[in-house]
Amino acid sequence: MRDEPGDGQGFARRRPGLTLTLQVLAPSLVLGVCAVGLLVWPRALVFIAAETVAAAMLIRLWAMTVGGSLSQSLYQPLSGIQLSYRVDHLGLFFALTGIATGLVLALPWLVHPLARTGRRGAWVLAAQLGMVSTVLAGSLETLAAAWAMAVAGLILLALLQRRVAPPIAMDGPTSRYVAIQASAAALLLAGAVAAETSAGTGAFDSIPVSAFDVRTVLLLGAAPIAALMTVQLLCRALHRPLLASLAGATVVVPMSVYVLVRIYDLGGGRLPDSRLNAALVALGGVTALGFAVASLWAVDLGAAVARLAQASAGITLVALGAGTGLALAVGILAPISLGLGFAALLTMRQRGLRRRGPGCRSHHPRGPGATGDAGGRL
Hints:
By secondary structure, this protein is mainly α. Helices cover 68% and strands 4% of the residues.
């Protein structure tokens, strides 16, 4: 997976008016601008346009990196700490998976592109901005900073997605999710600092395999593992199946799986201790089995989405914990399968609403695992 960085000069000669850095940052800039646009003009068309343009730009970057990865330093805030990007097919695959899944989930809005969607989509786009920045990061420090951006977007989505007084909703699932993700992001930063301190650099192209000892891997892996293990908690905090699908399938799962696969890559294709593999397999297996069985007693679509998403995340951990080439390939494909599963569930929901008529509402009891009505709004 590790390739030597390209110089990008051929592309610069073909398009002298655009620098490589701007083209790499363009998908994130589009998502950020459209997030602001959704706050001002909350229409479905803005969200669809953001996903479409960002996907097209990522496909262009894929074509640019056919001959090898591209990397460049962006900013050096302190001596030895660099913010940089690294564009390769591994990161682009996860970025495209997340953005394309968001576009698939938003396809029903094409029927009414000017319908009001609410401003919640802005926080989804903000989280996707962090996700894209994470998978295109070129150093551990950049990865930790981008991860924090994505987590901030998800936290804002969970806090501000309901019209309540006060406007910030801190119920049980939300408060637990905020506490866990903030702590995990801090551990990821600590892992980046630990690796940079022992190796003298955090750049993916130059950091040695010896920098990834058990302590460093535990710190770096805490954030993605915590994110995958709290998918169901995020779904409960969001209360809406569509929001839960977008947050889980377009941000949490692709970003988390990418970081774990990148740890394997930087660590020479393996974890430093086989007991870490066994722990991942055991944790993922228990999670997958428990929530798959619990989904049989889901009271509505929201609860089904939350529990099936958590079961899928558990299976992903099993695959990544196994550590073989085939198992890693299964883990890499997990975001695609999860996104398609979410799309199928939401399609069934929409068909059910049409058959029952617009005036019908569900009379299922509201349990603690329910996440509310999908509807056509974010």
